[in-house]
Amino acid sequence: MPDKTVLIVEDEENLAEALRYNLEREGYNVLTARDGDSGVSTSRRAKPDLVLLDVMLPKLDGFEVCRILRRETSTPIIMLTARGEEVDRIVGLELGADDYVTKPFSMRELLVRIRNILRRSGPTEAPERLRAGSLDVNLNSYTATLEGRQLELKPKEFGLLALLMGNRGRALTRDQILKRLWGYDFVGDGRTVDVHVRWLREKIEAEPSKPKLIATVRGIGYRFDG
Q1: Would strands 221-224 and 214-217 be described as parallel, antiparallel, or unpaired?
Q2: Which of 47, 185, 192, 202 has the fewest CB atoms within 10 Å of its CB?
Q3: Residue 134, CB half-sphere, CA atoms under 13 Å: how many?
Q4: What separation in angstroms does the CA of 136 have from each of 151, 168, 213?
Q5: Could you tell me the domains of the chain?
Q6: 164-173, 207-216, 217-226: which has the highest mean pLDDT?
Q7: If 0-12 CB within 10 Å is exposed, 13-18 middle and 19+ buried, where does residue 64 land?
């Protein structure tokens, strides 16, 4: 399932790395956090598509993290725990977790659960048009207009604009953008994305040096805020 980001909130280093390795092999983009506080802050900043959340965490436990995230977002949450008591599973599910997996677990089974949850939570129909104020992108005709004036966009600029607008409010990493627009075999680096963002800002921003539509997310990538 391309272009999906999974946040792993797990303080056990070996397990976190095993999860990262297997998820990246499946094509997911992976972020990690080692305690509850950083799990909450990373989720708020990066807006992942799914959170793998350990229950026993430093600073904030997984139940509290789940409670906080569920107040703020509908992002799917799978809770991971070494404790198998029924009451713990009930608490996690009542707090809004989408699934509950007891350690040790089958990595293959977990990957299937992740894939199924993401499939259920994904959009059912792709939009034909994307709009933000006077900016209008037609995905069928591959045209974009700003204040009624057609924009002269190169194919990669159009693809970048459509990708960012289609994920409005969500931070996309440079690696996500590269994989989606340039493909997995592309040998360049994140500077390619930076250059295309600069070109795009020059065409859609009132003040390209003070962008209001395409925001830079420090340490992550870019986010469309229009």
Answers
A1: antiparallel
A2: 185
A3: 9
A4: 10, 14, 13
A5: 5-121 (3.40.50.2300), 129-224 (1.10.10.10)
A6: 207-216
A7: middle
Token reading at 62: 């997984």
pLDDT digits (tens, 9 = 90+) for 148-181: 999 999 989 999 999 999 889 989 998 888 888 8
| Cα(200)–Cα(153) distance, integer angstroms | 8
Closest of 126, 186, 215, 125 to residue 162, by C-alpha:
126
- pLDDT at position 186: 62
Instruction: For residues 149 and 135, give the distance between their C-alpha atoms in angstroms, rounded to a whole number.
Output: 9
Question: Has residue 3 got a pLDDT over 80?
Answer: no
pTM: 0.56
